[in-house]
Amino acid sequence: MLENISLINLIGPALMLLYVGYCWVHQGIHHKGKGWKTREESPKGFWFTIVLLLVLSILTIASPLLIKR
Predict the structure, then answer these.
(1) How many angstroms from the chain centroid is the CA of residue 61?
(2) What is the pTM of this model?
């Protein structure tokens, strides 16, 4: 089943997961125009970014496995 998923379809979610991991380890995110903000400086933005990117990457990876053509 995984042979049907092309490598290109996995690059985006893999990069999102890597960024989520980087943000989690360093406890911050990059805000456009404001630079790096720590979790304490921007808690809502931090959690929004972490949850959004996790959900999008998991759905992107899992959707070809769940939806059969």
Answers:
(1) 11
(2) 0.79
